[in-house]
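Researcher: Re-running this chain for the archive, since the previous output was lost when a drive failed. Same request as before.
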Amino acid sequence: MWQLNSPSKLLQIGAVGTAVTALCCFTPILTLLLGAVGLAWLSGYLDYVLFPALAAFVGLTAYALWRQETAKACCPGEGGEP
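Model: Regenerated structure tokens:
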């Protein structure tokens, strides 16, 4: 059973979310997919969703890294997991 509050799981979620959001933000992948299913009119509104999502995932990654470092400083023998 995985715990969402562990620094390593938060780091994985943040890194994957950042990569997927950046891929959709900076390449035409999402526009092509929306056009293929007939929803190309939504591509004008993608910036309103993707840029805040990218900021949130980058923030989550930074928070996970901070939690991982503070856990290592607190309990160096336990590998950073609380």
